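Quick one: structure tokens for this chain, please?
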Amino acid sequence: MNNEQHPAIEIRDLRKAFGEQRVLNGISFQVKKGETVAVIGRSGGGKSVLLKLLIRLQAADSGSIRIADEEITKIEERKLSEVRKKIGFLFQQAALYDSLTVEENVAFPLSKQSDMPAREQKERVRELLKEVGMDQDLRKLPSEISGGMQKRVGLARALALDPEILLFDEPTAGLDPITTADIGELIVTLKKKRRMSAVVVTHDVHGARAYSDRMLLLDDGNIRAEGSFADLEHSKDEFVSRFFGSA
């Protein structure tokens, strides 16, 4: 099997608990190269924990996580750092550095994790900010721009090292409907342009419908349903159809 045929992400029998609280009960799924999978479900259903396991911010109790054909649950820190360079992560609150300008925030991973000369870094940062529509705000601090604009800057920073995989944690949380639609369109554009694989954790079912190839519904630590919006909306499972019908 050549590298192109390997899934971007492969999860097998993944389990995680905090004390007596079981968060993931042996879930399994794949994300193909170039595919965007939306993980949806009620609060506390394990969605954000799943993302943290995918970059090993938290350790799985058992099961397998293969990212870019590397099993990450047991690899040493140096190898893990190499795998993480292939992953861009957009945090729920954008997680920008308050004291750095928009330009400096996007340059941060380049200065820390690449050998790119300063002049090329500057060009790369400006290209990325143009790609997300923020090239007119280079000198501004995060406090001087809106929540939606901060998400755009966070996305530019997540793209800085040209990752193969993007992970989004609630990319449209707290945004107005117009900005939410703009962020959704941006995800679609990037997907077409860069052919990256993505996992998007979200409560926004209708937004996810626009940019995802497939949806997973997590419920009490299990994958309750999997498929397109239409598949899940017309599911024979009452909980699934109610979840999508009322979304």
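The chain has two domains: 1-86+163-222, 94-162.
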